[in-house]
Amino acid sequence: MSSVAFETQRAALADVVAIPVTPFAEDGSVEQDTYRALLRRLLDGGITTLTPNGNTGEFYALTPEERRLVTELTIDEAGERAVVLVGVGHDIPTAVASARHARDLGARMVMVHQPVHPYVSQAGWVDYHRAVAEAVPELGVVPYIRNAQLTGARLAELADACPNVIGVKYAVPDAARFAAFARDAGLERFVWVAGLAEPYAPSYFSAGATGFTSGLVNVAPAVSVNMIEALRSGDYPAAMKVWEQIRRFEELRAANGSANNVTVVKEALASLGLCRREVRPPSRPLPEGERAEVAAIAAGWSI
């Protein structure tokens, strides 16, 4: 397929890429009606790109059946209102099966989670992503890069073999490294998504990103939309005003090696009466004493 065939997908990446939470019922199962309601809230808030089975969705704590369910619910609820970028990963056969499942349901893209393995060679990284991308040539493929060792030349090598690799979720917390990586890989060749969400979006946009991921968007879609609009118009002072608004919330999420990344988002949603606060191990709900601060932040955004 030519790059022209992926124009819709490329446009969808150059936006707020929402990572929905996966709400759990009292018995620990996926709370399907609540999940649909949270998706509708995102769609009604102007969000048009959704990533089910992302890290904010507790991808690694879901069973294979639950990951399929979340994919099915998202594609059904989104309909024509959003482009769905399904998170896939684990071993190659599992990632390929997930990608084909997403394709068969009508998804347009998959995001390939960083390979979870103690020993990742750069050539092996290419092999892993190539196996997934070649299995679904009609889908746009977006590697999720958290590996600071990976070079831009390796991404270019992957895309030479697989023209459906059209975008990158770059989540190494180093704006200078991102700027170099993007230029080594091909700045215009890929859509660059700031994979560390709103806190890093202004610095990454200044280096060539045109989209950013968000977990905060679950709580306050308008806040994330305000930031992308400011960044698109090149109004960095306005973007940094939004940055100041979200700074404390994101600091709470990032503390202790991002231990409470999902926890804080679900706590904010719980404070607004939108879903239960429960997360699965190895995450853990916030201690009672820290809940009030999160609730106050969320209440301030909803004014």
From TrEMBL:
Keyword Lyase among UniProt keywords: yes
Keywords noted in UniProt: Lyase
InterPro entries reported in the protein's UniProt record: Aldolase_TIM, DapA-like
GO MF annotation: an example: N-acetylneuraminate lyase activity
Top-level taxonomic group: Bacteria
EC number: 4.1.3.3, 4.2.1.41, 4.3.3.7
Xref: CDD domains: DHDPS-like
Coiled coil: none
Broad enzyme group: lyase
SUPFAM superfamilies attached to this UniProt entry: Aldolase
PANTHER family, sorted: 5-DEHYDRO-4-DEOXYGLUCARATE DEHYDRATASE 2-RELATED, DIHYDRODIPICOLINATE SYNTHASE
Family in the record: Belongs to the DapA family.
Protein name from the UniProt record: Dihydrodipicolinate synthase family protein
